[in-house]
Sequence to fold (87 residues):
Amino acid sequence: MKGLKEVESWEKVLLGAGTLWTPGMAVAAEIDSAAGWDHLWLEVLIDISVIGAVFSLAAIWMLFRYRARSPNDVGRGPKLSSTQAVA
Fold:
């Protein structure tokens, strides 16, 4: 029985040492959050630039596709009452 109690006490010592050692390792392996935010900001800027370029190309294409080819191509809209204009 004495040997069994020694094993239990060693287990407690190792378990206690492990719990004291683990937070120190967590601090040592801490990730730099500023670098992560910089990477995220770069991704956001790339996404916004790509979306802006796509919308710009679509707007330019629509300007040429739907332009008036002659002065007579411009039409007139129907007369609207004040209720229709608000709605």
